[in-house]
Amino acid sequence: MIATPAQAAGKMANPAKAFLKPANLNWLNNSGMHLMPRDASEAAQSYLHFKANGHFPPNYHVFETLSQPRILFADLINARHDEIALVQSTLAGENLIVNGMGLRRAKGNIVTDALHYDGSLYLYESLKGKDLELRVVAPRDYGVNLADLDRAIDRETKLVAISHVSSVNGFAHDLKAVCDIAHAKGVPVYADIVQSAGIVPIDVKACGIDFAACGSYKWLMGDMGAGFLYVRKEHLGTLVQRIQYGYLQCPTLEQYAFSDPHSRQWPIEYTVGSEAKDYFEVGTPSVVALITLDKSLRLIQRVGVENIANHTQLLIERLREDLQRMGYRSLTPDGNKSGTTLFSVPNAQQMKAKFDAASIKAGVRETEIRFSPGLLSTMDDIEHVLDIMQK
What we know:
- This protein is α/β, with parallel strands linked by helices.
- The protein has 13 helices and 15 strands.
- Helix 8 (204-207) links the parallel strand 6 (189-192) and strand 7 (211-215).
């Protein structure tokens, strides 16, 4: 039997009530941008109202609100709270790892694959030089073969960098298998988890990942401008160094501009923290984005990632089965477990016009269509898109 959103939602009776989505909108583009929960939108609007008129509620402390998403995200991926830092975006976090490891001055090689995020591939292309080789593993059968990855990694590899779930076609790496291969050769692993956090269960301790980052406007149901960086505790100050500095890294910071210039305190007195946030956070992040995350992460916590994943997989399996029967070629491996699937659609632009007329939102490219149903999607939504694509 196919689970409805209500059946898949664990403790939440009707997840649709948590959103403002119009009834006629068929949103199948969550891997592009997830719709924001109602209470997240309302919290953001309240903050902007306070900011505009200057009348904040009594006992309203912005920084207390900003600390909660860090904790909620740590719990989501089974990380320690002191292993999470706020960052602007997924790629901002990846850059902090690359630069914090000193890879621009490194000798050896970096291993990635062609299904990694295109902006990340550009980052690693920029590192190539006389002393540092970039090894890009090509996909086979629309996925990355572990044996191919194993052959690319050696004792001179400085970092393995992958997308847990590819934005290209939804291919999902087995994080534990990748980490086992890399760690056996003494190599750390970074994973871009923006296409998996919130839709695919992640346990950073069980899989052994060293670093991970993600933005929040996709499956975390937040907004652009805020994200998270995970760094295993033992790597802070050892494998990864502090490369930028700001007041958020200081648990205590006092300024004594008018004190005696010869005193120990002048011009400032401070302590420096040792948590991930104390290595990578610098100045105030996007307050609005984090206020929305405080609400959206709580929704994900209540519903449960396992429930969201199971519900979504049922929808994707139906979509894949019927589209392939219609003659559309799948560009995502069989048996893949993620929230995203990609199909070759030669007349994709014509199909987009049909989608627009039917209020269907999917990731339409030149000759491909990427579908990513989620918590709000139903089997009726899948049948709707199948009906349009069969005509």
